[in-house]
Design a protein that fits this description.
The chain is mainly α. It has three helices and no strands. It is rod-shaped and about 145 Å long.
Amino acid sequence: MVGMTQAGTKADWLKKISEFEDFLGIGDEASKMVQEQKAKARILQSVLAAEEAEEAERKALKMKMVEEEEKKAEATLEEEEDVDADEVIQAIKNTYDGCIKQAISPVFCFSDFCFANNMDVLSYFNQWK
């Protein structure tokens, strides 16, 4: 029988299979198909890796934007708190000024009354001594 040999190692078997494929004329085609499949697999892996990298970049950018928005919100809140404190201080000043005006107003009214009536303020108070 032609071509019947016994190979002892795996390398020998691979060599014999390769020779048999060459003999049948299918070795080159099978090899091309395997190489094409490997190339397609490498391309697919590259595409998937690129998509994962883009997704990771999008997530990182989104997280960065969220952090910036949080910082802006905190800064705005702090500014509002500062404004609120300023408003409270101004309200206290206005109330204080109002109290002073209310306390002084009768004095001014009395002095205006005295001046209008040509009265001496001291003589007015001395009448009750």
